[in-house]
């Protein structure tokens, strides 16, 4: 009976494509998100996820691939934030607070001015994983492989930069280039996630599995591996919940991500709320 429940959705091509996307996004989000968490850059992903709208509008107007427009717009927003932070005394969180509504407003204006009202904002903001095609799966597979290969090749340098940016700069590492590379990775992840949970919920995949793993392990590479497990589990479980409960797929995935985090927060052997109290009580006795 259980096996029938597991294999029944696989009879449909749209479910097979959706599950493949969820699997890949679980890995991609956890790897990139681990760097965000350690560097305390979580909100930059939120800014970029909102800043893709102008690029999507222009790409739709020019009849280009929407992913190209979203990627360019996301990169531009990150460069604007970096320029504000470097060229002034304004802190990065303030630069983010200014950049996010600015790019979002520009996107809404462009939709109106360019008469691109056919742009489906609901799909951009909330995703449409059940509408993905095999070409979308291939695109995300390529993005995931590129990120994993680059991460493997430059892991030591990225780890050094992540934990000690000043030390990395003093040792002669190209920290600006590494920052730009991380921004590109974040933007690619967000562009890929637009098909799954959408731009508004993408932070869940970027941050949720990574911080869940952060509560359970100490090393960066362990965060990536365990976070990928949580990401894959959340994506696939969310899809099955969506299928059987007839609920939106993106929010279903997000809910599973949050439940996984809450369980880790409560029962983590070293940092869990409940287990920490027990350990403190044992020490007191």
Automatic annotation (TrEMBL):
Domain of life: Bacteria
Membrane topology per record: Multi-pass membrane protein
Residues passing through the membrane, by range: 20-38, 68-86, 98-117, 137-154, 166-191, 197-217, 224-245, 251-274
Keywords associated with the record: Membrane, Transmembrane, Transmembrane helix, Transport
Localization (cell): Cell membrane; Membrane
Family recorded in the similarity comment: Belongs to the ABC-3 integral membrane protein family.
Protein name: Manganese ABC transporter permease
